[in-house]
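Researcher: Last one for today. Full complex below.
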Amino acid sequence: MENTSKKTARPGKVKSRTYEELWTRPGYLIRRLHQIHVGLFAEECGGADLTPVQSAILTVLQGGEGMDQLTLSTSVGIDRTSGADVIRRLERRGLLTRISSEQDRRAKIVKITVEGRTFLKRVRPRMARAQDRLIAPLDDEEREEFFRLINKLVDANNKASRAPMGTV
Amino acid sequence: MENTSKKTARPGKVKSRTYEELWTRPGYLIRRLHQIHVGLFAEECGGADLTPVQSAILTVLQGGEGMDQLTLSTSVGIDRTSGADVIRRLERRGLLTRISSEQDRRAKIVKITVEGRTFLKRVRPRMARAQDRLIAPLDDEEREEFFRLINKLVDANNKASRAPMGTV
DNA sequence: GCAATAAAAGAAGTATACTGTGTAATTTTG
DNA sequence: CAAAATTACACAGTATACTTCTTTTATTGC
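Model: Here's the assembly. Have a good evening.
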Protein backbone atom coordinates (compact mmCIF):
# COMPACT_ATOMS: atom_id res chain seq x y z
CA MET A 1 0.00 0.00 0.00
CA GLU A 2 1.38 3.34 -0.83
CA ASN A 3 -2.00 4.44 0.40
CA THR A 4 -4.39 5.15 3.26
CA SER A 5 -3.45 4.03 6.71
CA LYS A 6 0.13 3.11 6.00
CA LYS A 7 1.26 6.55 5.01
CA THR A 8 -0.54 8.36 7.78
CA ALA A 9 -0.23 5.89 10.60
CA ARG A 10 3.11 4.21 10.07
CA PRO A 11 5.18 5.63 12.89
CA GLY A 12 8.57 4.29 11.85
CA LYS A 13 8.44 2.39 15.07
CA VAL A 14 5.86 -0.22 15.90
CA LYS A 15 5.97 -0.78 19.58
CA SER A 16 2.68 -2.33 20.61
CA ARG A 17 2.55 -5.37 18.31
CA THR A 18 -1.18 -5.77 18.48
CA TYR A 19 -1.22 -6.45 14.75
CA GLU A 20 -4.44 -4.55 14.29
CA GLU A 21 -3.28 -3.21 10.92
CA LEU A 22 -2.44 -5.75 8.27
CA TRP A 23 0.83 -4.09 7.33
CA THR A 24 2.15 -4.48 10.89
CA ARG A 25 1.85 -8.27 10.64
CA PRO A 26 5.13 -9.87 9.59
CA GLY A 27 3.31 -12.84 8.13
CA TYR A 28 1.20 -10.56 6.00
CA LEU A 29 4.21 -8.68 4.65
CA ILE A 30 6.00 -11.93 3.90
CA ARG A 31 2.99 -13.27 2.03
CA ARG A 32 2.88 -10.07 -0.04
CA LEU A 33 6.59 -10.24 -0.80
CA HIS A 34 6.23 -13.88 -1.77
CA GLN A 35 3.43 -12.98 -4.17
CA ILE A 36 5.59 -10.24 -5.62
CA HIS A 37 8.44 -12.66 -6.19
CA VAL A 38 6.13 -15.14 -7.90
CA GLY A 39 4.88 -12.29 -10.09
CA LEU A 40 8.37 -11.15 -11.02
CA PHE A 41 9.50 -14.69 -11.68
CA ALA A 42 6.51 -15.28 -13.95
CA GLU A 43 7.26 -12.07 -15.79
CA GLU A 44 10.84 -13.15 -16.48
CA CYS A 45 10.45 -16.91 -16.81
CA GLY A 46 6.76 -17.38 -17.56
CA GLY A 47 7.47 -17.50 -21.25
CA ALA A 48 9.69 -20.50 -20.57
CA ASP A 49 6.94 -22.06 -18.46
CA LEU A 50 9.12 -22.15 -15.38
CA THR A 51 8.03 -21.53 -11.80
CA PRO A 52 10.30 -20.82 -8.81
CA VAL A 53 9.84 -24.30 -7.35
CA GLN A 54 10.48 -26.01 -10.68
CA SER A 55 13.65 -23.96 -10.96
CA ALA A 56 14.70 -25.04 -7.46
CA ILE A 57 14.09 -28.73 -8.23
CA LEU A 58 16.13 -28.61 -11.43
CA THR A 59 18.90 -26.64 -9.72
CA VAL A 60 19.30 -29.26 -7.01
CA LEU A 61 19.32 -32.06 -9.58
CA GLN A 62 21.89 -30.27 -11.67
CA GLY A 63 24.38 -30.25 -8.83
CA GLY A 64 24.21 -33.82 -7.60
CA GLU A 65 23.45 -37.17 -9.10
CA GLY A 66 20.00 -38.75 -9.01
CA MET A 67 18.01 -38.95 -5.81
CA ASP A 68 14.67 -40.25 -4.61
CA GLN A 69 11.62 -37.98 -4.56
CA LEU A 70 11.57 -37.49 -0.79
CA THR A 71 15.22 -36.45 -0.58
CA LEU A 72 14.69 -34.10 -3.51
CA SER A 73 11.54 -32.52 -2.06
CA THR A 74 13.17 -32.09 1.34
CA SER A 75 16.29 -30.48 -0.06
CA VAL A 76 14.09 -27.92 -1.81
CA GLY A 77 12.06 -27.39 1.35
CA ILE A 78 8.67 -28.59 0.21
CA ASP A 79 6.37 -31.39 1.21
CA ARG A 80 6.86 -34.77 -0.42
CA THR A 81 3.46 -34.75 -2.15
CA SER A 82 3.90 -31.20 -3.43
CA GLY A 83 7.28 -32.26 -4.72
CA ALA A 84 5.80 -35.30 -6.44
CA ASP A 85 3.38 -33.00 -8.32
CA VAL A 86 6.16 -30.75 -9.54
CA ILE A 87 8.41 -33.67 -10.43
CA ARG A 88 5.64 -35.36 -12.42
CA ARG A 89 5.07 -32.19 -14.46
CA LEU A 90 8.78 -31.81 -15.16
CA GLU A 91 8.98 -35.46 -16.20
CA ARG A 92 6.10 -34.93 -18.66
CA ARG A 93 8.16 -32.16 -20.25
CA GLY A 94 11.19 -34.40 -20.54
CA LEU A 95 13.34 -32.26 -18.24
CA LEU A 96 13.94 -35.12 -15.82
CA THR A 97 13.46 -38.88 -15.56
CA ARG A 98 11.95 -40.99 -12.80
CA ILE A 99 13.23 -44.57 -12.70
CA SER A 100 12.50 -47.18 -10.05
CA SER A 101 15.57 -47.91 -7.98
CA GLU A 102 17.19 -51.32 -8.27
CA GLN A 103 18.25 -51.30 -4.63
CA ASP A 104 14.91 -50.17 -3.22
CA ARG A 105 11.94 -50.85 -5.42
CA ARG A 106 9.77 -48.47 -3.35
CA ALA A 107 11.90 -45.51 -4.40
CA LYS A 108 11.97 -43.70 -7.70
CA ILE A 109 15.29 -42.14 -8.61
CA VAL A 110 14.97 -38.72 -10.21
CA LYS A 111 17.64 -37.54 -12.65
CA ILE A 112 17.89 -34.42 -14.76
CA THR A 113 18.03 -35.08 -18.51
CA VAL A 114 20.27 -33.46 -21.12
CA GLU A 115 17.25 -31.43 -22.19
CA GLY A 116 16.82 -30.38 -18.58
CA ARG A 117 20.40 -29.15 -18.35
CA THR A 118 20.12 -27.25 -21.61
CA PHE A 119 16.84 -25.72 -20.50
CA LEU A 120 18.27 -24.66 -17.16
CA LYS A 121 21.28 -23.05 -18.80
CA ARG A 122 19.00 -21.14 -21.14
CA VAL A 123 16.67 -19.75 -18.45
CA ARG A 124 19.33 -19.06 -15.82
CA PRO A 125 19.80 -15.38 -16.82
CA ARG A 126 16.07 -14.75 -16.61
CA MET A 127 15.85 -16.42 -13.22
CA ALA A 128 18.72 -14.24 -12.01
CA ARG A 129 16.97 -11.15 -13.37
CA ALA A 130 13.87 -11.96 -11.32
CA GLN A 131 16.00 -12.25 -8.18
CA ASP A 132 17.84 -9.03 -8.99
CA ARG A 133 14.61 -7.10 -9.53
CA LEU A 134 13.22 -8.33 -6.23
CA ILE A 135 16.04 -6.84 -4.17
CA ALA A 136 16.69 -3.90 -6.49
CA PRO A 137 15.02 -1.42 -4.08
CA LEU A 138 17.71 -2.07 -1.45
CA ASP A 139 21.25 -0.73 -1.50
CA ASP A 140 24.22 -3.06 -0.94
CA GLU A 141 24.30 -2.63 2.81
CA GLU A 142 20.56 -3.15 3.15
CA ARG A 143 20.77 -6.29 1.03
CA GLU A 144 23.39 -7.82 3.29
CA GLU A 145 21.26 -7.02 6.30
CA PHE A 146 18.12 -8.38 4.67
CA PHE A 147 19.87 -11.65 3.80
CA ARG A 148 21.23 -11.91 7.32
CA LEU A 149 17.84 -11.35 8.96
CA ILE A 150 15.81 -13.59 6.66
CA ASN A 151 18.37 -16.37 6.96
CA LYS A 152 18.21 -16.01 10.73
CA LEU A 153 14.42 -16.27 10.67
CA VAL A 154 14.39 -19.25 8.31
CA ASP A 155 17.11 -21.11 10.22
CA ALA A 156 15.57 -20.53 13.63
CA ASN A 157 12.02 -21.32 12.53
CA ASN A 158 12.91 -24.19 10.25
CA LYS A 159 11.74 -26.81 12.68
CA ALA A 160 8.35 -25.14 12.89
CA SER A 161 7.80 -25.43 9.16
CA ARG A 162 5.56 -28.11 7.82
CA ALA A 163 8.28 -29.21 5.44
CA PRO A 164 11.49 -28.63 7.37
CA MET A 165 14.60 -28.65 5.26
CA GLY A 166 17.68 -30.71 5.78
CA THR A 167 16.07 -33.38 7.90
CA VAL A 168 17.04 -36.20 5.56
CA MET B 1 19.16 -25.75 6.12
CA GLU B 2 21.40 -25.91 9.07
CA ASN B 3 23.25 -28.35 6.84
CA THR B 4 25.59 -29.03 3.95
CA SER B 5 26.63 -26.18 1.74
CA LYS B 6 25.18 -23.37 3.79
CA LYS B 7 27.35 -23.81 6.79
CA THR B 8 30.53 -24.33 4.89
CA ALA B 9 30.06 -21.97 1.98
CA ARG B 10 28.07 -19.09 3.39
CA PRO B 11 30.63 -16.32 3.45
CA GLY B 12 28.68 -13.73 5.41
CA LYS B 13 28.94 -11.67 2.31
CA VAL B 14 27.48 -12.67 -1.00
CA LYS B 15 29.04 -10.51 -3.63
CA SER B 16 28.64 -12.31 -6.91
CA ARG B 17 24.85 -12.84 -7.01
CA THR B 18 24.96 -15.76 -9.40
CA TYR B 19 22.28 -17.48 -7.35
CA GLU B 20 23.84 -20.89 -7.90
CA GLU B 21 22.92 -21.99 -4.41
CA LEU B 22 19.25 -21.97 -3.47
CA TRP B 23 19.83 -20.20 -0.16
CA THR B 24 21.42 -17.24 -1.93
CA ARG B 25 18.20 -16.57 -3.86
CA PRO B 26 16.04 -13.99 -2.11
CA GLY B 27 12.91 -15.42 -3.72
CA TYR B 28 13.74 -18.83 -2.35
CA LEU B 29 14.28 -17.57 1.18
CA ILE B 30 11.05 -15.61 1.05
CA ARG B 31 9.12 -18.66 -0.11
CA ARG B 32 10.60 -20.66 2.78
CA LEU B 33 9.72 -17.96 5.30
CA HIS B 34 6.21 -17.77 3.88
CA GLN B 35 5.82 -21.52 4.30
CA ILE B 36 7.07 -21.22 7.85
CA HIS B 37 4.52 -18.53 8.62
CA VAL B 38 1.71 -20.62 7.15
CA GLY B 39 2.89 -23.50 9.31
CA LEU B 40 3.03 -21.42 12.48
CA PHE B 41 -0.35 -19.88 11.74
CA ALA B 42 -1.86 -23.31 11.19
CA GLU B 43 -0.35 -24.51 14.47
CA GLU B 44 -1.93 -21.62 16.38
CA CYS B 45 -5.16 -21.09 14.46
CA GLY B 46 -5.66 -24.35 12.61
CA GLY B 47 -7.93 -25.63 15.35
CA ALA B 48 -10.17 -22.64 14.65
CA ASP B 49 -10.02 -23.42 10.92
CA LEU B 50 -8.52 -20.05 10.10
CA THR B 51 -5.90 -19.30 7.46
CA PRO B 52 -3.81 -16.10 7.21
CA VAL B 53 -5.79 -14.80 4.26
CA GLN B 54 -9.12 -15.49 5.91
CA SER B 55 -7.87 -13.60 8.94
CA ALA B 56 -6.86 -10.67 6.72
CA ILE B 57 -10.26 -10.56 5.01
CA LEU B 58 -12.14 -10.55 8.31
CA THR B 59 -9.79 -7.95 9.79
CA VAL B 60 -10.41 -5.54 6.92
CA LEU B 61 -14.19 -6.06 7.17
CA GLN B 62 -14.10 -5.51 10.92
CA GLY B 63 -12.67 -2.05 10.51
CA GLY B 64 -14.87 -0.57 7.80
CA GLU B 65 -18.39 -1.06 6.66
CA GLY B 66 -19.36 -3.42 3.84
CA MET B 67 -17.54 -3.34 0.53
CA ASP B 68 -17.65 -5.13 -2.80
CA GLN B 69 -15.51 -8.19 -3.43
CA LEU B 70 -12.97 -6.49 -5.65
CA THR B 71 -12.30 -3.67 -3.19
CA LEU B 72 -12.01 -6.23 -0.42
CA SER B 73 -9.66 -8.50 -2.36
CA THR B 74 -7.50 -5.57 -3.42
CA SER B 75 -7.21 -4.15 0.07
CA VAL B 76 -5.95 -7.53 1.25
CA GLY B 77 -3.56 -7.73 -1.68
CA ILE B 78 -4.92 -10.76 -3.51
CA ASP B 79 -6.49 -11.36 -6.87
CA ARG B 80 -10.25 -10.94 -7.25
CA THR B 81 -10.83 -14.62 -8.03
CA SER B 82 -8.70 -15.82 -5.13
CA GLY B 83 -10.59 -13.40 -2.92
CA ALA B 84 -13.92 -14.67 -4.20
CA ASP B 85 -12.93 -18.21 -3.22
CA VAL B 86 -12.00 -17.19 0.31
CA ILE B 87 -15.09 -15.01 0.70
CA ARG B 88 -17.37 -17.83 -0.44
CA ARG B 89 -15.88 -20.18 2.14
CA LEU B 90 -16.28 -17.61 4.92
CA GLU B 91 -19.88 -16.98 3.83
CA ARG B 92 -20.60 -20.72 4.05
CA ARG B 93 -19.41 -20.60 7.66
CA GLY B 94 -21.68 -17.65 8.44
CA LEU B 95 -18.79 -15.30 9.27
CA LEU B 96 -19.81 -12.80 6.58
CA THR B 97 -22.70 -12.04 4.24
CA ARG B 98 -22.74 -11.29 0.53
CA ILE B 99 -25.70 -9.20 -0.63
CA SER B 100 -26.24 -7.73 -4.08
CA SER B 101 -25.88 -3.95 -3.99
CA GLU B 102 -28.95 -1.78 -4.61
CA GLN B 103 -26.89 0.93 -6.27
CA ASP B 104 -24.85 -1.33 -8.53
CA ARG B 105 -26.45 -4.65 -9.26
CA ARG B 106 -23.17 -6.03 -10.61
CA ALA B 107 -21.58 -5.76 -7.20
CA LYS B 108 -22.04 -7.91 -4.12
CA ILE B 109 -21.55 -6.11 -0.83
CA VAL B 110 -19.64 -8.12 1.73
CA LYS B 111 -20.26 -7.50 5.43
CA ILE B 112 -18.94 -9.21 8.52
CA THR B 113 -21.61 -10.83 10.69
CA VAL B 114 -21.96 -10.76 14.46
CA GLU B 115 -20.66 -14.34 14.46
CA GLY B 116 -17.71 -13.13 12.41
CA ARG B 117 -16.86 -10.42 14.92
CA THR B 118 -17.15 -12.82 17.84
CA PHE B 119 -15.00 -15.35 16.03
CA LEU B 120 -12.34 -12.76 15.22
CA LYS B 121 -12.21 -11.57 18.81
CA ARG B 122 -11.79 -15.15 19.98
CA VAL B 123 -8.92 -16.06 17.64
CA ARG B 124 -7.07 -12.73 17.78
CA PRO B 125 -4.68 -13.84 20.55
CA ARG B 126 -3.75 -16.97 18.63
CA MET B 127 -3.14 -14.98 15.46
CA ALA B 128 -0.92 -12.61 17.41
CA ARG B 129 0.98 -15.56 18.85
CA ALA B 130 1.74 -16.85 15.36
CA GLN B 131 3.11 -13.43 14.39
CA ASP B 132 5.14 -13.21 17.59
CA ARG B 133 6.67 -16.64 17.09
CA LEU B 134 7.64 -15.78 13.52
CA ILE B 135 9.81 -12.83 14.55
CA ALA B 136 10.84 -14.25 17.91
CA PRO B 137 14.37 -15.08 16.67
CA LEU B 138 15.11 -11.37 16.15
CA ASP B 139 15.90 -8.84 18.86
CA ASP B 140 14.07 -5.51 19.00
CA GLU B 141 16.53 -3.66 16.82
CA GLU B 142 16.61 -6.41 14.22
CA ARG B 143 12.81 -6.46 14.14
CA GLU B 144 12.60 -2.77 13.38
CA GLU B 145 15.17 -3.19 10.62
CA PHE B 146 13.39 -6.24 9.21
CA PHE B 147 10.07 -4.36 9.11
CA ARG B 148 11.74 -1.40 7.47
CA LEU B 149 13.41 -3.50 4.76
CA ILE B 150 10.45 -5.72 3.98
CA ASN B 151 8.14 -2.70 3.82
CA LYS B 152 10.58 -1.04 1.47
CA LEU B 153 10.63 -4.11 -0.78
CA VAL B 154 6.86 -4.52 -0.76
CA ASP B 155 6.21 -0.84 -1.41
CA ALA B 156 8.73 -0.53 -4.22
CA ASN B 157 7.74 -3.79 -5.89
CA ASN B 158 4.02 -3.46 -5.34
CA LYS B 159 3.32 -2.50 -8.93
CA ALA B 160 5.11 -5.61 -10.14
CA SER B 161 2.84 -7.86 -8.13
CA ARG B 162 0.09 -9.69 -9.90
CA ALA B 163 -2.42 -8.33 -7.41
CA PRO B 164 -1.14 -4.84 -6.57
CA MET B 165 -2.56 -3.36 -3.44
CA GLY B 166 -4.17 -0.02 -3.04
CA THR B 167 -5.03 0.49 -6.68
CA VAL B 168 -8.74 0.90 -6.00
C1' DG C 1 11.54 -67.40 9.13
C1' DC C 2 7.74 -64.48 10.03
C1' DA C 3 5.13 -60.88 11.94
C1' DA C 4 5.47 -55.98 13.23
C1' DT C 5 7.23 -51.73 11.99
C1' DA C 6 8.94 -48.20 9.09
C1' DA C 7 9.67 -45.98 4.70
C1' DA C 8 8.53 -44.42 -0.15
C1' DA C 9 5.17 -43.40 -3.04
C1' DG C 10 0.36 -42.82 -4.81
C1' DA C 11 -4.40 -41.13 -4.63
C1' DA C 12 -7.96 -38.17 -2.97
C1' DG C 13 -9.29 -33.96 -0.89
C1' DT C 14 -8.71 -28.89 0.58
C1' DA C 15 -6.95 -24.05 0.46
C1' DT C 16 -4.47 -20.44 -1.71
C1' DA C 17 -3.47 -17.84 -5.84
C1' DC C 18 -3.20 -17.13 -10.17
C1' DT C 19 -4.83 -16.95 -15.75
C1' DG C 20 -8.32 -16.67 -19.08
C1' DT C 21 -12.93 -16.53 -20.66
C1' DG C 22 -17.59 -15.26 -20.54
C1' DT C 23 -21.69 -12.65 -18.85
C1' DA C 24 -24.35 -9.12 -17.07
C1' DA C 25 -24.72 -4.46 -15.63
C1' DT C 26 -23.14 0.17 -15.72
C1' DT C 27 -20.82 4.10 -17.51
C1' DT C 28 -18.70 6.67 -21.16
C1' DT C 29 -18.57 8.28 -25.60
C1' DG C 30 -19.92 9.48 -30.31
C1' DC D 1 -29.86 7.64 -27.48
C1' DA D 2 -27.16 3.69 -29.11
C1' DA D 3 -22.52 1.65 -29.46
C1' DA D 4 -18.30 0.98 -26.95
C1' DA D 5 -15.71 0.51 -22.98
C1' DT D 6 -15.44 -0.66 -18.31
C1' DT D 7 -16.63 -3.03 -14.14
C1' DA D 8 -17.99 -6.94 -11.04
C1' DC D 9 -18.57 -11.39 -10.87
C1' DA D 10 -18.62 -16.43 -12.10
C1' DC D 11 -16.60 -20.51 -13.98
C1' DA D 12 -12.92 -23.44 -15.73
C1' DG D 13 -8.26 -24.58 -15.56
C1' DT D 14 -3.33 -24.71 -13.59
C1' DA D 15 0.36 -24.72 -9.98
C1' DT D 16 1.78 -24.82 -5.29
C1' DA D 17 1.37 -26.88 -0.79
C1' DC D 18 -0.58 -29.14 2.43
C1' DT D 19 -3.54 -33.41 4.93
C1' DT D 20 -5.02 -38.11 5.36
C1' DC D 21 -5.42 -42.78 3.83
C1' DT D 22 -3.68 -46.71 1.37
C1' DT D 23 -0.30 -49.81 -1.08
C1' DT D 24 4.08 -51.67 -1.76
C1' DT D 25 8.50 -52.74 -0.26
C1' DA D 26 12.35 -53.00 3.38
C1' DT D 27 13.96 -53.57 7.74
C1' DT D 28 13.73 -55.24 12.41
C1' DG D 29 12.56 -57.97 16.43
C1' DC D 30 11.60 -62.18 18.17
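The longest strand of chain B covers residues 96-100. The helical segments of chain B are 4-9, 26-45, 52-63, 69-76, 80-92, 114-135, 140-157.
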